[in-house]
Amino acid sequence: MVDVLGLLLVVIVHSAGIQDRDGAQQVLTALVARFPRLQLIWADGGYAGQLVTWVTTMLQRTLVIVKRPRHTQGFQGLQWRWIVERTFGWLNRSRRLSKDFEALPETTETWIRIAMIHLMVRRLAARRVTFSDRLSERPVVSRNSLETP
Fold this sequence. Notes:
It is a single chain. By secondary structure, this protein is mainly alpha-helical. The protein has helices at about 20-35, 50-60, 80-90, 95-100, 105-125, 130-135, 145; strands spanning about 40-45, 60-65. It has 7 helices and 2 strands. Helix 1 (about 20-35) packs parallel to helix 2 (about 50-60). It is globular, with a radius of gyration of 23 Å.
């Protein structure tokens, strides 16, 4: 589960034998426990059906299904779906996550968290301006430019 910036909120990896719609209950329960003020959740069309009712009755939250517009031909990015796809792209840049090497779901969850930490630290480091950086931004004044003709 990611926020609107594509940053990780909750990750739960389960076996391939569990349908995403069924595994979503575990993810959404963890999400609400971790972020109790969260009221609105967007989900892909694959999660439509009984999950919407379950979220409303059991979690007292609103689950909105993002649907593809009718009569649309070809590819069209969905309003909120691209955020999740972009996050998958970021995670796939991690060599360890590009293939399914892990035997335990917990190990995969850990590597996903490590990849997101790496992404966030790189972003924060790119924005960090130190005192020495500010000094180097000052224009260099040479001795020749101070002399008058």
